[in-house]
C-alpha cells in the first residue's frame, strides 16, 4: 500500500511540461487579480467601509452560474455523443472515455477552476470600490457629459435622435430585455472562455476582461465621476434635458412594465442609504455594459466571423439601449468602446513583446476513444465544442 501511494503522490506533484504551461498562462492573471483585490481592500479600509468580504458571497453565485452553464453544455454534448456511438461500443463506457479524452483534461479543468474562482474575488473587490466612487470623488461630470452629447450630435440630445427608431413600447421593452440579457451573455462567454482550447485567445480575453474592470471601470470611473441621465436631477442643480425621455419611459412602464426603471430606483435607494448589496454603486462614465459587449464582439471575431457578427450587433444594441433607457450618456459608450479596443490591442502587443503565447490545446485531441470490444470501430468525427 505504501509504495503505490508514494508513487501516486510523486506523480501528482511532478512538475510536468503541461503544468508549467498551466502556470505560465495563469500566473499573470492571478497576479493581477491579487493586486487589484489588495488595492481594493486597502482603499476600503482607508474609508472605513469594507464591503468586499460581504459582497464575495453574493458574487460567488456568478461563478456557480457560469460553471452550471458549463455542466449543462457538457451534458448536452454527451447526449449528442449518444447518437454517435461507434458500432460495437457500449455508450456508458465510450462516452465518459471520449469526454475525458477531449475535455476533462487536467489543463482544462484546473485552468477553468482558476479563472472561475478568480472572477468573484475580482468582481467583489470592484464592487467594493464602485460603492466608494462618490465618496472618493463626488459626482461632478454629469452636466459636462450631457453638454458633450448635445454638441457631438449637432445640437440634439442622443435620446431624441433615437426616438424615431426606438420610441415605440415594444422596441423599448425588447431593448430592456436585451439589456438585462447582457448578464447572461457575459456568463456564457466566461464559461466558454474558461474552458476554451484556444489558450492564447483565452489568455488575451481574461487579461483584457480584468484590466477593463480595473482601468475604465475603476480608475476612469473615479476620475470622471458621474451618475448618468437617470440620476441627473439628483446630482446636479441644472435643468434636466431628460424630462420628456423619462415621461415616455414611465408611460411604457405603466402600460407594459419596464424593469430598468425599478432597478434605477433601487440603485438610488442603495446609494442614499449606503446599503451593501449586489445591486449597489452608481457610475456612468464609461459604460461597462458597452466595454464588455465590445469585448464579447472581439473574442467572437477571434473565433469566427459568424460568431463575431451577431455579437457586434448585440454590442450596438447595448450602446443604443444604454442611451434609450436613460442609463448612460452617449459619450459613455463611445469612450468605453475606444478603451476596450485600446486595451485589447495593448494586451496583444504585450503578449508578443513578452513572448507570452500559451500553447493551444489540440482541437481533435488524438485518435477517437475506444472501449473494449471485439468489433472494430469505424472512424468517428464530431464537431468542436469549444
Features:
16 helices, 386 residues, disordered C terminus, mainly alpha
Can you describe this structure?
- With 386 residues, the protein is mostly helical.
- It has helices at residues 2-13, 17-47, 52-82, 91-102, 106-130, 133-136, 142-152, 158-166, 169-195, 199-223, 232-235, 243-256, 259-273, 288-303, 305-324, 330-353.
- The relative contact order is 0.14.
- It has one domain (21-353).
- Helix 2 (17-47) runs parallel beside helix 5 (106-130), helix 9 crosses helix 14 and helix 10 packs across helix 16 (330-353).
SSE blueprint and pairings:
Layout: H1 2-13, H2 17-47, H3 52-82, H4 91-102, H5 106-130, H6 133-136, H7 142-152, H8 158-166, H9 169-195, H10 199-223, H11 232-235, H12 243-256, H13 259-273, H14 288-303, H15 305-324, H16 330-353
Helix pairs in contact: 2-5, 2-10, 3-4, 3-5, 3-9, 5-9, 5-10, 9-14, 9-15, 10-14, 10-16, 14-15, 14-16
Order of helices and strands: HHHHHHHHHHHHHHHH
Globular, elongated, flat, extended or rod-shaped: what is the shape? globular
Helix content: over 70%
Counted up, domains total: 1
Gist of the model:
With 386 residues, the chain is an all-alpha fold. It is built from 16 helices and no strands.
Amino acid at each position: 500500500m505504501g509504495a503505490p501511494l508514494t508513487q501516486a503522490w510523486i506523480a501528482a506533484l511532478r512538475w510536468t511540461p503541461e503544468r508549467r504551461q498551466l502556470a505560465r498562462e495563469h500566473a499573470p492573471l492571478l497576479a493581477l487579480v491579487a493586486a487589484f483585490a489588495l488595492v481594493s481592500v486597502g482603499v476600503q479600509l482607508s474609508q472605513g467601509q469594507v464591503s468586499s468580504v460581504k459582497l464575495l458571497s453574493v458574487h460567488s453565485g456568478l461563478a456557480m452560474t457560469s460553471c452550471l452553464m458549463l455542466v449543462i453544455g457538457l451534458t448536452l454534448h454527451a447526449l449528442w455523443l449518444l447518437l454517435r456511438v461507434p458500432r460495437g461500443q457500449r455508450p456508458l463506457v465510450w462516452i465518459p472515455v471520449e469526454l475525458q479524452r477531449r475535455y476533462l483534461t487536467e489543463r482544462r479543468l484546473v485552468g477553468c477552476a482558476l479563472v472561475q474562482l478568480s472572477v468573484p474575488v475580482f468582481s467583489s473587490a470592484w464592487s467594493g470600490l464602485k460603492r466608494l466612487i462618490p465618496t472618493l470623488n463626488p459626482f461632478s461630470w454629469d452636466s459636462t457629459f450631457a453638454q458633450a452629447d448635445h454638441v457631438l450630435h449637432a445640437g440634439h440630445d442622443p435620446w431624441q435622435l433615437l426616438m424615431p427608431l426606438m420610441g415605440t413600447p415594444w422596441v423599448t421593452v425588447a431593448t430592456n430585455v436585451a439589456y438585462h440579457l447582457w448578464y447572461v451573455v457575459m456568463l456564457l462567454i466566461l464559461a466558454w472562455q474558461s474552458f476554451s482550447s484556444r489558450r492564447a485567445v483565452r489568455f488575451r480575453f481574461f487579461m483584457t476582461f480584468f484590466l477593463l474592470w480595473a482601468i475604465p471601470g475603476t480608475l476612469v470611473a473615479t476620475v470622471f465621476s458621474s451618475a448618468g441621465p437617470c440620476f441627473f436631477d439628483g446630482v446636479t442643480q441644472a435643468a434636466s434635458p431628460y424630462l420628456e425621455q423619462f415621461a415616455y419611459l414611465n408611460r411604457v412602464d405603466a402600460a407594459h412594465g419596464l424593469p430598468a426603471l425599478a432597478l434605477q430606483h433601487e440603485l438610488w435607494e442603495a446609494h442614499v442609504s449606503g446599503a451593501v448589496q449586489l445591486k449597489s454603486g452608481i457610475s456612468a462614465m464609461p459604460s461597462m455594459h458597452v466595454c464588455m459587449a465590445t469585448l464579447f464582439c472581439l473574442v467572437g471575431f477571434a473565433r469566427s466571423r459568424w460568431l463575431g457578427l451577431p455579437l457586434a450587433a448585440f454590442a450596438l444594441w447595448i450602446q443604443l439601449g444604454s442611451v434609450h433607457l436613460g442609463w448612460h450618456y452617449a459619450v459613455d459608450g463611445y469612450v468605453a468602446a475606444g478603451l476596450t479596443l485600446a486595451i485589447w490591442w495593448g494586451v496583444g502587443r504585450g503578449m508578443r513583446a513578452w513572448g507570452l503565447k500559451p500553447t493551444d490545446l489540440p482541437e481533435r485531441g488524438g485518435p477517437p476513444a475506444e472501449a473494449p470490444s471485439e468489433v472494430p470501430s469505424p472512424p468517428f468525427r464530431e464537431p468542436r465544442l469549444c
